[in-house]
Amino acid sequence: MAQLNIKDRQAGDVTILDLSGKITIGEGSVQLREAVRKLLDEGKKKILLNLGDVSYVDSSGIGELVSSYTTTNNNGGQLKLLNLTKKIQDLLMITKLLTVFETYDSEEAAVSSYK
Amino acid sequence: MPINETIELSIDSNLEFVEMVASVTKSVTSKMGFDEDDASWIELAIHEAVINAITHGNKSAADKQVDVRFVIELDSLTVHVRDRGEGFDPTTLPNPLDPDNLLNPSGRGIFYMRTFMDEVEYSTHTEGGSVVRLTKYKRSSKPQN
After folding, report:
1. How many beta-carbon pairs under 8 angstroms link A with B?
2. For residue B62, what pLDDT is reported?
3. In this complex, do A66 and B103 lie within 8 Å of one another by their Cβ atoms?
4. Which of A58, A64, A82, B128 could form a disulfide with A29 if both were Cys (CB 3.0 to 4.6 A apart)?
5. ipTM for the whole complex
């Protein structure tokens, strides 16, 4: 069974990736990386990661969120986060990453925020 | 749960075994009575230590073992994680909070370990390899600085 389940859907020109499971070293991180890469290759540069159903993240998972963010930016896109769990919020805050990402509790607000 | 008990396990350097160590960690923290928050952070810290031992210490060499020893005492849990690597100086690691390093894709594991455990100490094992010792005190027993 895959560590991380990723489903994609569109909200206008924003692609939402609904993630569930674990983003950790190995399979989970790689799955996320490949999913974001695929979107960018398809020209889909407005990406919203819905983390509400992510049960576990380790430092590699946080690193993959960061990599996804920088890769998207470098490709002229925007990557934002939706529905951070308390754990993920704490992990980002501890490493001063909470101010790097744009984060949202509301999908509507998140989708409207893309330029 | 008996006090002053030791649980030891030894795994090959294979990421598939990390979850088994996590299972033992969860079992130990539950029986020791750590609250849910502390237990989950302890589990993450041990997870990070084991991952580091496998990937950095042992360079994922399948024939190199990682030893994990849980020492359960009345007021604390100490976990020793030993690899069979060449050793390293943790003081030379880049600070993940440095603005120049903030967007690095890696380098946060030890920082998380130090954040969630009360003590984290690196040493060289007498028979080779590095050992990281992670200690978490029960809240009422934490030494006051």
Report:
1. 49
2. 87
3. yes
4. A64
5. 0.92
